[in-house]
Amino acid sequence: MNEINKTAMIDDLVELLRIRSVTGSNLGRMRCHETIRRMATRFGFAVTSHASNQVLVVSPKGLKGQAKLGIIVHSDTVPVVEKEWHYDPYGEICSGRVYGRGVIDDKMGIITALYAMMELQEEIEHSWQIIIGSREEGEWTDMEEYLSETPVIPAFSITVDGDGIQHGCRGTINVMLKFPDKGGSESSVKSIKSDNHAWNVTPSGITVTLEDGTLVEVHSKSMHSAIATDRKENAIYKMMCALREVFQKQFPGFVRFMDRYAETEGAEAIGIETIPEFFKEKGFLDSSICPTLCQLEGGALRIGINFRVSVEISKDDVTKALSTICKELGCTYEIFEATYASYVLPESEEIRMMLESYKKVLGKETKSTFAPGTGYNAVFPNCAIFGPRFDPDHDEEDLCHQADESRTIEDICTFEEMLEDFVRNYLKINH
User: Fold this and answer.
1) Predicted confidence (pLDDT) per residue in 43-95, tens digit
2) DSSP per-residue string spanning 100-131
3) Residue 261 parent element (H or E)
4) Three-state DSSP class for 384?
5) Is the peptide bond before 230 cis (omega within 30 degrees of 0)?
6) DSSP collapsed to 3 states, 4-65
7) With a threshold of 0.85, does the pTM exceed it?
8) Which of 27, 87, 154, 249 has the largest count of CB atoms under 10 Å?
9) DSSP tag of 376
10) Alpha-carbon distance 130 to 5, whole Å?
């Protein structure tokens, strides 16, 4: 890519970042998709809307039948706590970095996909689609409706929403545990207010008001639930510790659960056992849980748990485990969303080609891994993950979902080159 197109790509990325498109914002979604439509049309691509305008599909003009390659991305983002940012969360370039909510997850993926296809128009078969969803950070009603329309799904797809090359991902189940009030006093909890109201992000702060007017505040670093390994830094756990005696009298089951959460690994706190060594040797990750939501409602304490589900875990396994733990803790549960683990064979030809492009462009060897988080690849058949971050061993700290989310211009351009190389080889004429 020449310098003029690199500059244009970064400018287009900043333009997309300026649109506030938190999951569930209809205005943000419409503005994002109209901007993407304009960019894609400028490159000469065809653009169609689907699923009540929740999904946008970009294709080469004249595509007929099944595309050989799909690139799956999303336009929505997690919320922003503006007071935590040092740069403009809606698009700013400073010292060679692009700042803004969605740079990594996932607006960079949209823009690099568009530019890779623009660069390759004369070199590849016109047998591809870029499928852009708008609810990846929430309930996937967009893809549910899109797939119900029975579209012709690409033969093989990648999601540009991960780290390096990943042959699969854990599933996600959002579970609400409801702990009944066991009796209050003047020092009992009256209200709970937390930052970051999202299933997949831990709170950065929680304010608890007691019946006697006392205010208790706890603060912690907001973390992506899929990789929040420092359990004692979870703001919900810190809140419980700060008011242990109060919660012990009012919501004893909650205290027992949070202690168990902090003291165990994986998803053992809710009764899910670790996966067999056979799967670990193949690079598959264990299940995990992370408390992310906390609210007092109708005299009960509601704790939202983001449960990341490993391979070989079934719906029956989950409901049996939850029923058992809730009986033990004296609480109830409700499942709001459930997506199970998905993967392609790590020895597949597609994974091999992605690894080759990675080594060629970055100059470093890597292996395909199993993603800790859950993305749209879980709902598309024969779908793997390719960037936009590099292997964590070859990259900087992951700022996805964090304050000051950002990416260097150099890394953005490097990834576009990597994606372009893979697509060129995969869709080359007579491949």
Assistant:
1) 999 999 999 999 999 999 989 899 999 999 999 999 999 999 999 999 999 99
2) STTIIIIIHHHHHHHHHHHHHTTTB-S-EEEE
3) helix 252-263
4) strand
5) no
6) HHHHHHHHHHHHHHCCCCECCCHHHHHHHHHHHHHHHHHCCCEEEEECCCCEEEEECCCCCC
7) no
8) 154
9) G
10) 20
